[in-house]
């Protein structure tokens, strides 16, 4: 068996287009899951009892399902009820639906770790709930959020490869098409693996850098 990346010389553009599709899907899915996570957190903290129960049920159901099952439901079952959506939209929304509850759980855990005394101090001096969240809770919770949110983002990027099963034109879908043309799975999947590894490594290292900066800033603030 030989290893020759030259067999891919005519397919780099196709792979790059697939990579561009993955970047767009992951960026959109990450933003939507973040927004959904915030909304779920607010709903559980400030919503009516029926809304809290609904969110908890949705969270329990989603956390107990594999992403692939949820993807099949949204793509293959919803059309039976007249809901027909483009595959990229289905993939992006499914990623958000799946990862939103995880984001909410992370936000709630980080907020719960903030010392109650700092929040009580904000209330005592007449700060509004929004100001307390922005100026007291967020600065202390963010260093706690970053590592876990980074793990979720990396998981989302890796799970985006599953969208190829519903014919979303992303990186893995392009790789399968190239393999069918070149019969060179070793070379193709080696490149795919290296690109995923590089992308997740850059995200991980960037987060470590911001963790150190936030940690230093927090220590400086505490000494003042």
UniProtKB/TrEMBL annotation:
Residues 19-207 form the ABC transmembrane type-1 domain. One of its GO terms (molecular function) is transmembrane transporter activity. The chain crosses the membrane at residues 22-42, 54-75, 81-99, 144-168, 188-206. InterPro entries: AA_ABC_transptr_permease_3TM, ArtM/GltK/GlnP/TcyL/YhdX-like, MetI-like, MetI-like_sf. Gene3D superfamilies: MetI-like. It comes from the Bacteria. One of its GO terms (biological process) is amino acid transport. PROSITE patterns: ABC_TM1. It is a multi-pass membrane protein. Its main location: membrane. One of its GO terms (cellular component) is ATP-binding cassette (ABC) transporter complex. Keywords: Amino-acid transport, Cell membrane, Membrane, Transmembrane, Transmembrane helix, Transport. SUPFAM superfamilies: MetI-like (SSF161098). It is found in: Cell inner membrane; Cell membrane. Belongs to the binding-protein-dependent transport system permease family. HisMQ subfamily. This is Polar amino acid ABC transporter permease. It comes from Caballeronia glathei.
């Amino acid at each position: 068996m030989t290893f020759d990346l030259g067999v891919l010389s005519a397919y780099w553009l196709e792979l790059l287009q697939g990579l561009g599709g993955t970047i767009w899907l992951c960026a959109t899915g990450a933003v939507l899951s973040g927004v959904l996570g915030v909304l779920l957190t607010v709903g559980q903290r400030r919503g009516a009892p029926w809304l809290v129960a609904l969110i908890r049920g949705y969270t329990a159901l989603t956390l107990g399902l594999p992403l692939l099952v949820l993807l099949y439901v949204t793509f293959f079952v919803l059309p039976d009820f007249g809901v027909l959506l483009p595959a990229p939209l289905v993939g992006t929304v499914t990623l958000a639906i799946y990862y939103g509850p995880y984001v909410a759980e992370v936000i709630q855990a980080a907020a719960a770790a903030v010392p109650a005394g700092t929040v009580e101090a904000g209330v005592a001096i007449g700060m509004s709930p929004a100001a307390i969240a922005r100026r007291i809770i967020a600065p202390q919770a963010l260093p706690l959020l970053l590592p876990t949110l980074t793990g979720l983002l990396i998981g989302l990027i890796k799970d985006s490869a599953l969208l190829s099963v519903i014919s979303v034109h992303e990186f893995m879908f392009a790789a399968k098409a190239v393999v069918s043309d070149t019969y060179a799975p070793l070379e193709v999947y080696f490149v795919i693996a290296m690109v995923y590894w590089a992308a997740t490594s850059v995200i991980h290292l960037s987060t470590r850098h911001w963790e150190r900066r936030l940690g230093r800033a927090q220590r400086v603030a505490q000494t003042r």
